[in-house]
Specification:
The chain is of the alpha/beta class. Among the domains are: 149 residues, 3-Layer(aba) Sandwich (Alpha-D-Glucose-1,6-Bisphosphate, Chain A, domain 3); 97 residues, TATA-Binding Protein, CATH 3.30.310.50. It has 15 helices and 21 strands. The strands form four sheets. The protein has a six-stranded mixed sheet, sandwiched between helices. A six-stranded antiparallel sheet has the order 16-21-20-19-18-17, covered by helices on one side. The chain is globular and about 65 Å long. The mean pLDDT is 95.
Length: 483
């Protein structure tokens, strides 16, 4: 194997996808090796000459990356089917529609320019889990490739097939006026057309493709993006605002008054809407999500169960699949609808469509629906810098500390009643307030969230308690945003 000029930083293999700074941490030769490793893994789990659907997002370098990835896949015998410029959910859909054996989507989602990566999966609707990522990393770094002759085929016009599938199933009766914001990311050539297709009046915001992301990163958790959508909603007197991330698998929602609604609350509204028709259903939510799911009267009335699980699209997807849950909701805006509502993968546009159905079925404004939920005070997702090679150990130590502090410490006069350690540490207080510390899966940082149903002050006190623990580690840098 010619290793001249090969760069693959092993830290790029994350929990459930792969991301690197290009070309510093991975180069085209490294990407080719990644393709060979992924192809070897697919062949070992499926069959000789497996059919692999490949797509790419609209970054300046994504097409070059995809070509190298395809070259690697073909060298180990994969039959590549290239659907071209795509959203991640379009590639996931293609696996069902084309009945392919695996998928590989070249995207760094909402990460800043300079990042690249691949989202990949073998079993339908499921992306790689940590075990498969560890196996892939081992194959790539030790070069355990099984060489064979592959093939290449371009699939033309698949964008229209994906669009038609969503539009044909989801027509609405009301004329909902929606601001559709794409942050100049790939969703710009999909979301406006699809939402118009189901019957919305669409106001476009930054839907022209521009890989420099001139205003802000297409990230529906980014306050800058949310503020821009809020302004457009108010100026246009819209019913709702949607913000899509760079590869279209997530959505953020702004109500008709221009107020941001965290995605976990949207998930709860959708779950409440589904519960009467689907009694006894399970819903899966991630550990960053509101505590309201656990005690919601509507869900309890219809015998629905909520499971709190690990953050990350791959983890929630797998849990939804394993539990045969009706839906899964992630605070970051990944929503998963299982049969009969969807195929179980995350699609930001389909999630926005579900919100449109919510408005279509009820004679209420978005803010009225939100006001029916108990009020809570919630922080945005905050990410203090912590080195990739240190973050998991830092969190492990903090889990032990919180379990010890539970015995002796009160926060704002409240006892810690429950400590959930399925993903980092989520501790709850007696009034239902909670705080979370976990390691980010795709960046050198930790993740901090707090929520209180009691007061904004208590939410801040929980943050101060967490921040104090973090600062004492000596391993924490600047926060990306802070309350």
């Amino acid at each position: 194997m010619n290793n001249f000029n090969l760069i693959v930083n092993q830290n790029g293999f994350r929990e459930y996808d792969a991301r690197w700074l290009y070309p510093d941490d991975i180069n085209l030769e490294g990407i080719k090796h990644l393709g060979m490793g992924l192809g070897t893994q697919i062949v070992s789990r499926t069959k000789k000459n497996p059919r692999v659907v490949v797509g790419h997002d609209y970054r300046s370098y994504s097409e070059d990356i995809k070509k190298s990835l395809i070259e690697g896949l073909m060298q180990v015998g994969c039959a590549v089917e290239d659907v071209g410029l795509s959203l991640s959910p379009m590639v996931y859909f293609a696996q069902f529609e084309l009945d392919a054996d695996a998928v590989a989507m070249v995207t760094a989602s909402h990460n800043e320019n300079g990042w690249t990566g691949v989202k990949m999966g073998i079993e339908k609707a499921l992306t790689h889990a940590p075990e498969e990522m560890a196996e892939l990393k081992d194959i790539v770094l030790t070069q355990k490739f099984k060489l064979d002759q592959g093939s290449y085929k371009e699939i033309k016009g698949f964008k229209q097939i994906y669009t038609n599938d969503l539009v044909s199933k989801n027509k609405i009766k009301k004329k909902i006026k929606a601001v559709v914001a794409c942050g100049n990311g790939t969703a710009g050539i999909f979301a406006p057309d699809i939402l118009r297709g189901i019957g919305c009046e669409v106001v476009e915001l930054d839907c022209n493709l521009d890989f420099t992301f001139p205003k802000y990163n297409p990230n529906p958790e980014d306050l800058e993006m949310l503020h821009a959508i809020a302004k457009a909603v108010k100026e246009n007197n819209a019913d709702v605002g949607f913000g899509f991330d760079g590869d279209g698998d997530r959505v953020g929602v702004i109500d008709n008054l221009g107020e941001e609604i965290f995605s976990d609350k949207i998930g709860l509204l959708i779950a409440r809407n589904l519960a009467p028709k689907h009694k006894g259903s399970k819903f899966v939510v991630d550990v960053k999500s509101t505590g309201l799911f656990a005690h919601d009267k509507v869900l309890q009335e219809h015998n629905c169960e909520t499971i709190y699980w690990k953050t990350g699209h791959s983890h929630i997807k797998r849990k939804v699949n394993k539990e045969k849950a009706l839906a899964g909701f992630e605070k970051s805006g990944h929503f998963f609808f299982n049969q009969p509502l969807g195929f179980g993968y995350d699609d930001g546009i389909n999630s926005a469509i579900q919100v449109c159905h919510l408005l279509d079925h009820q004679d209420k404004k978005m803010n009225d629906l939100i006001n029916e939920l108990p009020k809570t005070y919630q922080t945005p997702t905050m990410a203090p810098f912590c080195k990739d090679e240190e973050k998991y150990k830092v969190v492990e130590d903090l889990v032990k500390q919180v379990e010890e502090l539970k015995k002796t410490t009160k926060i704002d006069g409240q006892t810690i009643t429950d400590v959930l350690t399925v993903n980092g540490v989520r501790f709850s207080l007696e009034d239902g307030s909670w705080g979370l510390i976990r390691a980010s899966s795709n960046k050198p940082s930790l993740v901090v969230v707090t929520e209180s149903p009691t007061s904004d002050e208590r939410k801040k006190k929980i943050f101060d308690f967490i921040d104090d623990l973090l600062q004492k580690t000596g391993k924490i840098g600047e926060y990306d945003q802070k309350i």
